[in-house]
Amino acid sequence: MTTSQHTISDEIAKIQADSPGGAPLLDFAPYRSTTLRHPTKDPRPVDPEGAELLAPVFGHSDVAAIEADLTVQGGGEPIGERIRVQGRVLDGDGRPVRRQLVEVWQANAAGRYSHQGDQHPAPLDPNFTGVGRCLTDDDGWYSFTSIKPGPYPWRNHHNAWRPAHIHFSLFGTDFTQRLITQMYFPGDQLLALDPIAQSITDPAALARLIASYDHSRSEHEWLLGYRWDIVLTGSHATYLEPSDD
Amino acid sequence: MTDSTPGQTVGPFFHHALAFPGDSELVPFGSAGSVVLHGYVHDGAGDPVPDAMIEIRQADASGAVPRVGGSLRRRGAGFTGWGRSCTDGAGHYWFSTVEPGLPFFAVTVFARGLLDRLFTRIYLPGAEDAVDGLVASREADGRLRFDIHLQGPSETVFFKFPRT
Questions:
Q1: Is the pTM of this model over 0.90?
Q2: Per CATH, which fold does B15-149 belong to?
Q3: A70, A199, B9, B127: which could form a disulfide with B103 (CB 3.0–4.6 Å)?
Q4: What's the ipTM?
């Protein structure tokens, strides 16, 4: 609790100089909660089989269209900056992931989650749960209307603040493409200080988690638009097809 | 994958978003032919992980992997072959399901403090060609038990697939 941001930032810089990588390092001490929760052995290489080659299927019986609008779930308008986040879900070969489930959750404009575990003394918003779902369309597009989440403090170290973010949960066509990640906002000065974001030690890879402001998606006198595309890993379905030779 | 979108931790505040009624019941609890698959998630000190989430994907009893929707609503959906269980305060997860006709449950693990998802398998007792250490045990009451250790002397074997 008494560790300073300066100390954490020094630790991050040393690790990043040694091991730039595109995936988050699981063993990343600046994020203190990883200490006892990261596997120490390298993952075992295996070829996916059976159920691993097929993602679960979701349909319109699972998700109502209204769940994609996080601003209409209470009795009134939530407080904050109204936004829309849109983008495509693609697989590692550039193909759209069609009619697949996207789940999101986020803090409200004051940086507070509507979760009983969040004790940050910022106001709850009775008109905002911060939870949404949608299905991608036939071209892989998703779209959520929401409120820009606020940054919030956490107890990793002294004066630690998470940059504003939206959690995204994604499925591909294989079970092996499962992804949970966080989308960040452009220009956020807290990103460089954040040990969760900085566990992705390659800046180009981290940049793939940052949405772009897209004025063409903003609506006159209504909301601001952001674009964020998501690229899953590659599907194994064709990659592992047995050959004749 | 050099250009895929990196993962990030699920964090501590996911339950109100990702848990849903019936999420861990691929078939209704106690229904004919059902089995409970359950266990505890532990950290490297052996302590429970009360903020983990486990997902399974599996074949049906005949060995076919279902490709039907309805997992989020469950009621009337039939067997979809996918479920989700958030651990409780004791680090316990559980599913009510059927024993798959293929020898393992495919598993993903998420948790606060875990920066990216982990993949593993849970094999049925007696499965041929099972990966060492990934076989569930049959408890006296018929439930299948498999504990997940993120770290430590009993660390679970986690997987890397060719394209992950």
A1: yes
A2: Protocatechuate 3,4-Dioxygenase, subunit A (2.60.130)
A3: B127
A4: 0.97
